[in-house]
Design goal:
Elements: E1 6-10, H1 16-23, E2 28-32, H2 36-43, H3 54-59, E3 63-65, E4 76-79, H4 94-106, E5 112-115, H5 123-136, E6 145-148, E7 167-171, H6 174-188, E8 192-194, H7 198-229, H8 233-240, H9 262-272, H10 278-288, H11 290-305, E9 313-317, H12 333-342, E10 346-350, H13 356-363, E11 377-382, H14 387-390, H15 394-398, E12 401-409, E13 424-427
Parallel strand pairs: 1-2, 1-4, 2-3, 4-5, 5-6, 7-8, 9-10, 9-11, 11-12, 12-13
Antiparallel strand pairs: 6-7
Helix pairs in contact: 4-5, 7-9, 7-10, 11-12
Bound molecules: nicotinamide-adenine-dinucleotide.
Amino acid sequence: MSENPSITIIGLGYVGLPLAVHLAKYFKVTGFDINGDRVTELLNGYDKTGEISSPELRNSTLHLTSNVDDLIGHNVHIITVPTPVDKNNTPDLTPVRKASETIGKIIQPGNIVVYESTVYPGVTEDICGPLLEKYSKLKCGKDFFLGYSPERINPGDREHTVDAITKVVAGQNLAVSEMLANIYGAMNGGKIFVAKNIKTAEAAKVIENAQRDINIAFVNEIAIIFQKLGISVYDVLEAAGTKWNFLNFQPGLVGGHCIGVDPYYLAHCATSFGHDPKVILSGRSTNESMSNAVSTAIHQTLKAKNPDISKPRTLILGLTFKEDVPDLRNTKVTDIISELESLGHIVDVHDPMADPEEAEEFFQINLKHSLETDEAYDCIIGAVPHEGYLNLTNISIEQLVKPSGLIADMKGMWRKREFDERYSYWCL
Ligand SMILES: NC(=O)c1ccc[n+]([C@@H]2O[C@H](COP(=O)([O-])OP(=O)(O)OC[C@H]3O[C@@H](n4cnc5c(N)ncnc54)[C@H](O)[C@@H]3O)[C@@H](O)[C@H]2O)c1
């Protein structure tokens, strides 16, 4: 193993790009992506994920490429490709397999291959290792070595950035673990936890997100219960949150590439070992049912005051999977849109953070460019608490809604306000 690592990062998305930029401050780094458009856009100094600023990108020594030959000669390869699920919620390891094939074809004796993609315990050693062997004709653990280091960053989180948080690392042997501790530690001030082995590190990551999912599911369940009781879950959480050990989770849709996906990886692994993961899947099912619960409640509240309304015009504020990010992956707002449309609503969508082309391409949604409207809506729904929506004045919100219309506030972002009494207000 080389004393002086030169590194490739395979997959330059939300995870790979920040990692590549930060590691490039200390090491020779080549960032590779199969998506040539992504590489071109990065070479032009633009990161559409919003994680890395243009000056930071332009000033980085990172070498960006979509040419596989540029990966040859490096000795540490870090794989940060997506790990989605298919339509049956089964792990889709195609990108991880493909990336392993790519690296398998170029690795040389002494190289280390580190996986950062979120997987279930066993994927690195039982699936990726053999693939690397197949394509390299080298022996895993003898000629080349495996490592795993889960990524914990959140899209849009400017505090818990990759250079600021503790990194869990695990290597196939002690020397690999030490090498990874040195590489990642150079970037994050030495905040390294060396996990006992690769499977432990894989398991640690997947339970971090499964735990969040289950906790959110609990809060979503009590939100539904308290709706029936006519009390606000937010008021209840505020009161309960004054206890020292009460956990702070908020109700809402669970979308995105991680929390709503990773528990299925753990569940798949459990099932393949003959265990029925009831708690994990029950949390998933509760969170998956939230879009229906929310759209039904909004529709019924609107109808209660406007019983004759048949084709309500509804404006949804926010399409991304969470606030203040452009990330549309696995957004559950699209489920709300479909459910409202099936109830007869004519839905417009506004989101200043989302890329209009992506909204059109992925969901056939033509985003409204501004909040100006010739005709007020029967219902507006605050779906994603982007800062711009938090800062809307009462007047600008009320101007969007017809008198007797409904202001629905899915995330409770306006719940401390007093709207004119002509409007109905709904929040979980
Ligand atoms: N997004 C997050 O905040 C986050 C946080 C923690 C962990 N993770 C995990 O990190 C992994 C990557 O997630 P992401 O959000 O960065 O995904 P992403 O979709 O933003 O980026 C992945 C990139 O990999 C590229 N890619 C796909 N297949 C490739 C291949 N075979 N070779 C080279 N490049 C390839 C894609 O073109 C894309 O640019 C996933 O396993 C995810 O679960 C993500």
